[in-house]
Please model this.
Amino acid sequence: MNDDGIGIRDYDWWLVAIILAICAFGVVEIWSATHAGHLAGMHVKQMWWIAVGLAFMLLLSRLDYHSVLDKAPILYLIGIIALLAVLAMGHTRYGAKRWLPVMGEFLQVSEIAKLIIIVSLARFFSDVRTERLSITDLCKAAVLTAVPIGLILLQPDLGTAMVLIPVVAVGAYLAGIQWKHAAVMVLAAALMVPIGWHHLKPYQKDRVTTFLRPEEDPKGSGYQILQSKIAVGSGGFWGKGLGHGSQNQLGFVPVRYSDFILAALAEELGFAGVFVTLVLYTALLLRLIQNAQHAKDRAGMFLVMGVAAILAFHVLVNVAMVIGFMPVTGIPLPLMSYGGSAMLFVFLALGLVMNVRLRRFVN
Amino acid sequence: MSLWFQNENRLPQMRLTVISYTVVGLMALLLLGFWKLQIVNSDRYTQLAERNRVRSIPIIAPRGSMLDRYGRVIVDNYPSFSVLLLRDDPQQVERLLPQIADGLNLTLEDVQQQLEAATSLAHFQPIVIKPEATPGDRDFIESHRADIPVLEMLMVYRRRYPSGGFMAHVSGYVGEVSSDQIEESGGRYRPGDIVGKAGLERQYNDHLMGVDGMRRSVVNSVGREVGRLEQTDAVPGKPIRLTIDYDLQLVAEEALVGKRGAVVAIEPKTGEVLAMAGQPSYDPNDFAVRISKEEWQQLNENPERPLLDRAIQAQLAPGSVFKILMATAMLESKAVPADYHVFCPGSAAFYGRVFHDWEAKGHGEVDLHKAIVHSCDVFFYNLGKQLGIDRISFYAGNLGLGHKTGVDLPGEETGVVPSEAWKQRVFHQKWYPGETISVAIGQGAVAVTPIQLAYMLSGITMGGRFHQPHLLLSDKPAPEIDFPISDSTVDTVTEGMYGVVNEPGGTAGASKLPGIELCGKTGSAQVISEEGLKRAGKKAELKDNAWFVGFAPRQHPDIVVSALVQGGGHGGVAAAPIARAVIKAYYDKKQGKIPPQELTTQAVPPGIPPSFAAEAARSNKPDAGAEETVPTNPDPVPTKPQPVSTTPRPTPPPTLNP
Model:
């Protein structure tokens, strides 16, 4: 595939540097959070995932994204079938069916589904030729997204389902959504809330109610947020030092190596560490958007912005949760939280971005 | 490959830029959130984090013990375990409560009540849910460390008092500090502290009470201890050494068994209280753990009033014992000549009313000495009329009545010394001269406490030097009030009191102590007036209160004893033997006739067992009076006390200056 004239220097090395810096923070904090207990060694596993992820990213970047987008309808079908398969014969963990056994590892299918949705929506929106997004196209896009969302909700996995919404939202925005349509959609979504409330699992309702009134139940469902805030707040400006955060080391911070890894980092590295981390994430997102701006065509832009939308959503929601701005949703922090499937997804998504960048001058 | 993508290359740059700014804006907002938590509110969260990781468990300081004048342990502590409930996680506690109640043999309601009572305390402060843990409870806690992590054993020291109410009114008892006390203490007491509630425990609480320490350890999120932080050791309370002589106390307690009354023995030269007992009593051990509401109510409502410390709180008419004061007043005031005498026909009329003598036959011609020895009422009726109430009141006030003696016990009563002004103040009525006649024989409005009588007599025999009675042994002399009384007065009065015991016809002739110059005065005070008695129509229940005050030897006495038996009848019969027993024991001990009791609190027998008195009586009879001289140096200190106490005892048992 080297016939397209892409050289080593064409890769977005800044992007790779930012990614690796974020990953390094993650690995260090995973080490700090787990080195003392029975989970010791997690950071090594995480480094393997990063290595594998990088390899996948490079591989994917070699493949012309146009050919990927070409296969979008088929990929979409495969995605739907996979989600159905999970529901039918998935592996249940923590009360939710999310995992399919693939090659000895349990693969979280919804992570792959995210990629497929990004691709499918990029394809869909680039097919729209009008300056403004018509109501028909908007509805089509909505349905296209609603089907996988529904399937993921059935697992149930509210967090991942929600992650898909910004992809279609950003896509619609860039495709020229009309304000009145946007308003109607938002209104419709608002009306869905009470209906959706009925279908929430009790633990999900708990999360929302305690988010709204945390003081009512300081040690129940609000416990996680409270402990997270205590960890963050007690970190101060410079932090307590790696391995010295009591909230982290004594296990008060919930899932401190995954969803709440930023709380652990905030405690041990303080506001300074958080500042650097958030600057890195901002740089990452801006870099993605810049790549979208320089994409050769709308298809490339939609692809990159799909990735950017999902990553931005992940980062914003996770960080907001850590400081108590949002309820606990189970959305990990990309590139830092421990987890193979999520890691692979992020790197594959970034592979797509790389792909677009590499092809900005060709053809 | 289809070429669907090739015809549209215009990108919505503007909208992409908007998205960039949105991202930066949201990130800045989040960073602001971190700023607020980590910089603005950092202190608060640091505190919360500390509270999370640190568990503080108090280390209870043992209270100082109480020793008798020779260092024998009367009150000490024993180690015990309480069950602590850690309440850091209310939900967990709530969930485990039934299991906890079941395992500790408590009712669920009881545990819940205790939890509710503690809601005002900070969450991290553990509460005691079972004060006295049984070995079974300890096993339960140990074996459920993993699944019931909210229970903890707390080593505490419980007060151990002599059983059966021995010296209970003097020692007092301890209990959980009340909210009023916390407020008064100005921060020295904290909720849950054990403080003295009555008696010496209360009087010298600050000295006896130690300072609790604190063990701080690091716990993880499931409550398991993972490390130790600093530990503040407890500072044990200091012991107090009392003036009480356990041997005399034992005799006094024994003599009172089954009666209602009190005994106070004072060393007149110093004001040291050698023995002080009251009955009915209560068992302070009942208070040491946690007294139930019912028990408390029962003690409070008991008609026998066991909580009343009769030695300092029973305010009763002194009856004929008051004649000592009348005699002193007569001689000191010189209102009548020293050879003043009257004829006693068995009754006399004053102000149109007939006043009877206790001896209906009359005593014939009576002078002061005879009047004391025979306790002639008519003589003192006349004397009273001569002196007048205000002169009587003046001397009573100066000889220790009508005000607190200042003994170092809380709750002492003042008694009543009536006067014209007093009646005007209290009843807004004029004093009737006829009332003076009653007061002259210690009836009517006059009321005294047993310790006041001992104090008064001490002062008179010491020629007017009144040493403040005290229970805390001290190197420094006690505060002293001087109201000089002439030697001749002292001689005449003590001579009369010697006669009461030793002359034929003396009202306490049965109490003679061979070889010891026992002097005394009996009193049989009517509980209500004779007219009232007739109206009530039931003599038995309203028998006279029996009094006896005595001392020995006649000059410069070593010991003064006042004894009261409520409803005991005649003082010479009911009260004199009690005082006599104490004084006899005092000299028996001095002369080495009885071995001092080896004493640890564990050895204090239940109730007041007979051993000592019986033994003393046996060993004493044959050679009584063999030794007339009383050794002047204080008796040899008994063998060193071996307190069976697990508390580390601070080495030198010091004395405290009140």
User: Anything to note?
Assistant: The longest strand of chain B covers residues 73-85. Chain B touches chain A through 49 residues (CB under 8 Å). Residues 256-282+312-620 of chain B form a domain with the Beta-lactamase fold (CATH 3.40.710.10).
